[in-house]
Amino acid sequence: MPHLVDATFLCEPPKELVLADGFAFHHGERIAPFTIVYETYGELNAEKSNAILVCHALSPGAHAAGKYAATDAAAGWWDGLVGYGKGIDLEHHFVVCVNFPGSPWGTTGPASVDPATGAPYGSRYPWVTVDDMVESQRVVADHLGIATWRAVVGASLGGMQVLLWAALHPTRVESIICMASAAAVPVATVGWHLIGRKLVQSDPAFRGGDYYGTGETLRGLQLARMVGHMTYLSDAALEKKFGRQRRNGTRQFEIDSYLEYQGAKFGAAYDANSYIRVQAAMDEFDLQEQFGSLANAFRRFRGRALLVSFSTDWLFPSLETARISRGMRDANVTVQHMDFETPNGHDAFLVDYPLISRPVRQFLER
Predict the structure, then answer these.
(1) Which of 119, 138, 276, 357 has the fewest Cβ atoms within 10 angstroms?
(2) Would you please indicate which residues are annotated as catalytic (active-site) residues?
(3) Burial letters for 168-195: b for 16+ Cβ neighbours within 10 Å, e otherwise?
């Protein structure tokens, strides 16, 4: 029986899969040995038919749900959706979340020490792709003996991984749930991403990616996060939260204080080399370019699909989800597109659980 605490549960610590022969990246590089970190929740049934893969986005890692200890300040990043009695119900499903290559949260990344040199990989770490992310998940699935996922679920960059699973491994996926995502990053979003990466790379403290051990604050990463954070919100959310309020009677706008806080918090926790690589992987992803058309991408997928978009999402507007839906229909995929009205922008998939939990639960119960 699970140990429930408050509105969540106590989960097992992260697991490690060490690949002695290494991991081969999509662009040809290999790192050996290579460690993949992942977490699991719930119980895998005897037939191994109840497994759901949850794919994470840029900022979080494999810790999708639960707490390691009752005293932890916060639960996993998608705890509002994954848990006992929640949208992805652990009473029935076994959930796996894999920390993908390039991320700073455990899997061998740019900050990891290269045993051949005794120094971090830094600027020598490969430029990752969404294909690499899916491949790391495939490796873990094989390790766990999971031949077919009951569902593959994700949002934002996680949603891109979901779509690629359906395209690359259609016989291993029974159904998919893709939220707040796209088959390719819209050009306006690419532009915002590029500005953020240029801020990181133009910071003298970045040192071309070999800044480990210097102890310098990476102001470029902080500024990049501020730019990125603006794309996660919406006009309505910004007006409601901040308006034109000043801070404590000073000339500083409240939103300035908020963005500085978010930038400093992210800059202290996340790795700059990881940031530019993972974000660039999002921009490189293009299903139509990779497969010739969206219909071709999903031609062999015979499972069901639930696509979710949010009305105020600047980063991946609803029309991008509608484009995926058309491509799937052209490929004769059984697809449902739900577009929710919300003021919460791209971040809706992390906060609007009353909107998304019931449709997810109903979709998985079919």
Answers:
(1) 119
(2) 156, 313, 346
(3) bbbebbbbbbbbbbbbbbeeebbebbee
